[in-house]
Design brief:
Layout: H1 4-12, H2 15-41, H3 48-56, H4 75-86, H5 90-110, H6 113-124, E1 130-133, E2 149-153, E3 156-167, E4 174-180, E5 191-197, E6 203-207, E7 219-230, E8 234-235, H7 241-277, E9 279-280, E10 284-285, H8 290-318, H9 324-349, H10 360-372, H11 377-389
Parallel strand pairs: 1-4
Antiparallel strand pairs: 2-3, 3-7, 4-5, 5-8, 6-7, 9-10
Helix pairs in contact: 1-8, 2-4, 4-5, 4-7, 5-6, 5-7, 7-8, 7-9, 7-10, 8-9, 9-10, 9-11
Length: 391
């Protein structure tokens, strides 16, 4: 069956980028879709073999410059990867997605040449993976003021505290830690980011159990017990960690929007086919009812408009013209609209929607993460409204 999303993408991206999307889409169909139900029922993370194959496909080096061994792609390629992999599973898509948008990206944007030379080639090959240590048990939306601290002692820094909700922690070789370094400084100049090896003495990782969303994605808690790192471990500049964080999350919000649209694309195709196959009342398909048609049409409109908006913002990102408000808006709207419409799609399809094999319940559950990940929608609306309140 032709995917509706492909119809729109062919007109939104150049031919070579669509060919890349097709390659990742076909990989998803052959390597992920046939195994996904088994992974879910076995409660397993994305298998190492699947991660290895994604590495061989070049996905972990996608936006990394060729001089560091990457593919030299751009943010549009990253978003296209999210659309292609997320169609079947956001859990799988976020694995290379977070490794790039939250792991390699801050290093690309803010790292020194020595740091890039030391890490980017291995990251591009998928031999290493960075995890972004941002969220904390006591700091969710107020991520600008971390409770994790880093205290300078001579030529070293001592890091203490806990990070949680750290995507890809299970596979991570290093963690980028956002820590408080200047509590009395002005807002936005209080924190610093550090690159810390996960095997460093005093670093302890534990997978967060009981999670019912993104079940194949690793989500870890990382403890820092007086971890000593050299001054050279700073990513960016001292007391400029907020800038590193904001710069990283801006692009990450576009990727989260792509996951929401990928789930919507899956639900649209599943529902429109089911509506023509489900026979009821006078031996006719339920797709003839206007209320069913309304849901399908609304899904199609939301997918069309969302993709157009997202691709436009990707082009602005590449030109360094994307504002924080624009990135927040598309993340909020795509996640909200997809969540609402997938719920309606489940009502159209009825009880079969509750079964894992049908697929809609997976996307319904995972869409919750797109509403709270990379900044909760409630918190982002506070950011979006600021220019609307100015005179």
């Amino acid at each position: 069956m032709a995917r509706r999303i492909d119809t729109y993408l062919t007109h939104l991206v150049p031919e070579e980028k669509f060919a890349f999307y097709e390659a990742v889409r076909d990989f998803s169909d052959t390597e992920i879709a046939p195994n996904l139900l088994h992974w879910e029922r076995d409660h397993s993370l994305v298998p190492d073999d699947c991660i290895r194959k994604m590495g061989e496909l070049g996905l972990f080096g996608l936006p990394i410059a060729e001089q560091y061994g990457g593919q030299g792609g751009d943010h549009t390629d990253l978003v296209l990867m999210g659309l292609a992999l997320g169609y079947h599973s956001q859990s799988v898509a976020i694995t290379p997605g977070a490794a790039l948008s939250l792991g390699a990206k801050p290093l690309q944007l803010c790292g020194t040449e020595a740091q890039k030379q030391a890490h980017l080639p291995a990251l591009a090959r998928g031999e290493r993976m960075f995890v972004f240590g941002l969220s904390e048990p006591g700091r969710g939306s107020d991520a600008a003021n971390p409770e994790v601290t880093a205290v300078r002692k001579g030529d070293k820094w001592v890091i203490s505290g806990e990070k949680c909700w750290s995507t890809n922690a299970h596979w991570a070789s290093h963690v980028v830690v956002h820590a408080m370094t200047n509590p009395s400084g002005q807002n936005g100049r209080r924190s610093t980011c550090f690159i810390v090896p996960m095997n460093q003495r005093g670093v302890f990782y534990q997978e967060m159990k009981g999670k019912k969303v993104w079940e194949q994605s690793s989500t870890g808690s990382i403890m820092f017990d007086n971890v000593e790192v050299p001054h050279e471990a700073i990513l960016g500049t001292e007391n400029d960690g907020f800038k590193v964080m904001v710069t990283t999350l801006n692009g990450g919000r576009l990727f989260i929007a792509s996951l929401a649209l990928a789930s919507l694309a899956f639900a649209l195709d599943k529902t429109r086919v089911y509506a023509e196959e489900r026979i009821q009342f006078d031996d006719k398909p339920i797709g003839r009812f206007q209320r069913v048609q309304d849901v399908i049409v609304d899904m199609d409109i939301a997918l069309d408009s969302g993709l157009t908006w997202l691709m436009h913002l990707c082009s602005l990102y590449e030109k360094n013209q994307l504002s924080r408000e624009q990135a927040a808006k598309v993340k909020v709207e795509c996640s909200r609209k997809a969540s609402e419409l997938v719920m309606l799609a489940m009502e159209v399809c009825g009880g079969v929607s509750c079964f894992d094999e049908f697929g809609l319940i997976r996307h319904h559950n995972d869409l919750f993460v797109t509403r709270v990940g990379e900044g909760s929608n409630f918190a982002l609306k506070d950011l979006i409204v600021r220019p609307l309140r100015s005179n």
